Amino acid sequence: MKKIIKNSIITLFSLSLLFSCNNDFLELEPSDSIKEEDVFTKYANAKAALIGAYDQLSSPYFDGLYNPIMADIMGEDVMINSVDNWNWFTDVYQMNVLPTYNYVSNPWWSGYKLIFDANKIIENAQYIPDATQEQKEELEGQARALRAYVNLKLVQMYAPAHKKDNMAQSIMIVDRILAVDDEDPGRATLQDAYDFIEEDLVQAIEMLEDLDPVDIDRGFISKRGAYALLARTYLDQERWEEAKENAQKAYADIPLMTANEMLQGFLYRNSETIYSIAYTQEDNNVYLSLPSFYWPVAGYSSMRANDKFVEQFSTEDLRVYFFLIEEEIDADRNLILKFGHNGTVGNAERIVIRASEMHLIEAECEAELGNYSEAQDALYLIQSRAYPGVPKSRNTGQELIDEILLERRKELFGEGFRWNDIKRRQLPFVREGDHWVKFNFTANDADYYRLTFPIPQSEIDANKNISELDQNVGY
């Protein structure tokens, strides 16, 4: 831990200021002449550091590729093709990863690099000489929201479900810049990690400005984005009332995309986008991007939809047009047309938070709270947009909850939710149909450990307070 986080990462923080961000939502480009000791001497420099931190989210090792891809192929709806997969993500799809694998270590270290950068901003924002108090609050609020975002991702990947054991070992809480001679942080309890995430988001909400939806720069986590992340945080803990309330605040006054907008694919931000990661040819490897793996041509093009999942869609559901069997490309499995390059290969948007997800969180929470009419209304809002003429659900109890969870799968597939949805609810894991690696186990079976990544061996080797005995079950 000391070797990587406390020393090398200082260089990484400086390097983050060198990344050129050509997305038009970034009005201020990081300068390539800022020395680390000068970062917080001026507001413009500190803002460049914040942009550099955001830019890291689009890294292929974190949310630009690894996290969203793995979060779906660690499920039953989406898969990596069995041939012509270039050996990308096959170990993850087979749910056979080890602590030494890059798929395990890269998101971990990328996440903690970003946490380091966020901590630098949090600790220094209030002391920037030429910044107004509003600017200081915005910088710190953004950094806290980013830190919470990353910690939530790490918790979902490297810790068991809250529902299973809220006192289990989870991730390390790194809440400040660590000096070289500081003690290495050990693994915190899962509840402590969720409490830390909640505290960051509550403070971010207090610091970030209330903005009308049309004025929000969706390339940054706005106050609405912080509400959305808080809704996800409470959802993981089954704090239904709080998750519902924050989801409602996140989507308030935001129109859902139209059916036509939806069918155009997730190539650009749309009306319901709350937060989006943009990546460009200049910032990232062209082929290590989300559309490179999904779009049928111009990339690795190895993602497929499971046939049993596709069968869940009515032929009158417009989302069925996201699937295609094209004999010249793949005669056996469904291509996925939901994601693609925008304009040029390598340019893309990954819509990370959108209003439809928030409505589905509301529906799930209302159903769990026994408010069945409200849950049916929230569910119908999403169903009727994709399936005009669909009757409103009359289900109640577990049947309604199951219907809502199925709708989450239909609406959000490919967007990075399925892995955590299975785990947080402790659902059975069943792969059928044309999956080339099948599983069938429940939360009571030994194989359920596969739904939690191991702690990277590189962390265990570097951290004096984490040993082999602290490794996750099964590894």
Describe this structure in words.
- The chain has a domain at about 1-255 and about 405-470: Alpha Horseshoe (Serine Threonine Protein Phosphatase 5, Tetratricopeptide repeat), CATH 1.25.40.390.
- The strands form 4 sheets. Strands 1-3 form a two-stranded antiparallel ribbon. Strands 2-6 form a two-stranded antiparallel ribbon.
- The two termini are about 20 Å apart.
- Helix content is about 45%, strand content about 5%.
- The chain is mostly helical and about 475 residues long.
- The protein has helices spanning about 1-15, 45-55, 65-75, 90-95, 100-125, 135-160, 190-205, 225-235, 240-250, 260-265, 290-295, 305-310, 355-370, 370-385, 395-410, 420-425, 455-460; strands at about 80, 275-280, 305, 325, 330-335, 350-355, 430, 440.
- Mean pLDDT is about 90; it is low at about 1-30.
Order of neighbouring strands in the sheet with most strands: 1-3
Rg over CA atoms, rounded to whole Å, is: 21 Å
The total of helices stands at 17
Distance between the termini: 20 Å
- Provide the CATH architecture of one domain: Alpha Horseshoe
Question: What is the CATH level 1 assignment of one domain?
Answer: Mainly Alpha
- General form: globular
Largest sheet: 2 strands, antiparallel
Q: What is this structure, in a nutshell?
A:
With 475 residues, the chain is mostly helical.
List keywords for this structure.
disordered N terminus, two-stranded antiparallel sheet, 475 residues, 17 helices, mainly alpha, Serine Threonine Protein Phosphatase 5, Tetratricopeptide repeat
Topology, element by element:
Elements: H1 2-16, H2 43-57, H3 66-73, E1 78-80, H4 90-93, H5 102-124, H6 133-158, H7 190-207, H8 223-236, H9 240-251, H10 259-263, E2 273-279, H11 290-294, E3 303-305, H12 307-310, E4 323-326, E5 330-336, E6 348-354, H13 355-368, H14 372-386, H15 397-412, H16 418-424, E7 429-430, E8 440-441, H17 457-462
Antiparallel strand pairs: 1-3, 2-6, 4-5, 7-8
Helix pairs in contact: 1-2, 1-5, 2-5, 2-6, 5-6, 6-7, 6-8, 7-8, 8-9, 9-13, 13-14, 13-15, 14-15
